[in-house]
Amino acid sequence: AQSVSQHNHHVILSEAASLELGCNYSYGGTVNLFWYVQYPGQHLQLLLKYFSGDPLVKGIKGFEAEFIKSKFSFNLRKPSVQWSDTAEYFCAVMKFSGGYNKLIFGAGTRLAVHP
Amino acid sequence: NAGVTQTPKFQVLKTGQSMTLQCAQDMNHEYMSWYRQDPGMGLRLIHYSVGAGITDQGEVPNGYNVSRSTTEDFPLRLLSAAPSQTSVYFCASSYAGFNTEAFFGQGTRLTVV
After folding, report:
1. Closest-CA residue of chain B to A9
2. Which residues on B lie below 8 Å from A3 (Cβ)?
3. Burial degree of B67 (CB within 10 A; 0-12, 13-18, 19+)
4. pLDDT tier at A2 (50, 70, 90 boundaries)?
5. Do B50 and A100 touch (CB under 8 A)?
6. What gap in Å lies between CA B43 and CA A25, rounded to an integer?
7. pLDDT greater at residue A28 or residue B61
8. Does A43 touch chain B (CB under 8 A)?
9. Is the per-residue pLDDT at A1 higher than 70?
10. Cα of A101 to nearest chain B Cα, Å
11. What is the overall mean pLDDT for chain A?
12. Residue A98 has pLDDT above 80, yes or no
């Protein structure tokens, strides 16, 4: 079945550690790719997006993601995490299908950063 | 700018009760959708609409109804609430074309007892 897979459900890091969260999708053709963040008790906020062009995209708060078309991947990275990065992170794929652009989410990765 | 506004923020229902979750956007977006968020399952699409008068089912539509009489509003109705519908509900809107991003409301936390 077509899906969006996030490899890690829970990640625990110390401050200043590097972060990489994996995301793979199984949709063929043209897609738009997103990473959203949800801080505790809050709504979804867009971290970054990829539509076309440079496969390395930079988002807010020092996050970046790399689109590798051959691997159907869109991994999220941050060189040095902070305690304030504690949140849940969602990868999402927008697929144009049947006249509509559907946004499909992965299951999420819960990140805990310890001081 | 209001963006996407959802009401109420919290709601407790008894099994069998009905209610409507409200969603309104002021960005003139054609596309609106409802998701539910459950632990370990991400956000799953319930229903969506590409314009006034046009709605369709998403991944988990059972137990929910929607209608879209105006561009701005996209209410989600629970006709007979069940404990399995305890969840956090998010409304989103976007332009209908490709290369667009979705904007989300603040969410409604619903508990069915």
Report:
1. B40
2. none
3. middle
4. low
5. yes
6. 15
7. B61
8. yes
9. no
10. 7
11. 92
12. no
A102 touches chain B (CB under 8 A): yes
> Contact A90/B40, CB-based, under 8 Å?
no
Cis, bond preceding B8 (omega within 30 deg of 0): yes
Cβ–Cβ gap B96/A100 under 8 Å:
yes
- Side-chain half-sphere CA neighbours of A67 within 13 A: 21
Q: How far apart are CA A94 and CA A32, in angstroms?
A: 5
Q: Which residues of B22-47 are buried (b: 16+ CB within 10 A; e: fewer)?
A: ebbbeeebbbbbbbbbeeeebbbbbb
Round to whole Å and give the CA distance between A101 and A28.
Answer: 14
A6-41 pLDDT, tens digit each: 988 999 999 999 999 999 999 888 889 999 999 988
Mean pLDDT of B28-53: 93
Chain B residues with CB under 8 Å of A100 CB are: 31, 48, 50, 56, 96
In chain B, what residues touch A43 (CB-CB under 8 Å)?
A: 90, 104-107
Residue B86 pLDDT > 80, yes or no? Answer: yes
d(CA A82, CA A86): 8
Q: Which of A49, A51, A90 sits opposite B43 (nearest CB)?
A: A90
**Which residues pair with residue A25 across a beta bridge?**
A4
pLDDT at A102: 84
- C-alpha span between B20 and A61 (Å, rounded): 36
CA distances from A12 to A20, A82, B96 (A): 12, 12, 38
Nearest to A94 by CA among B7, B37, B43: B43
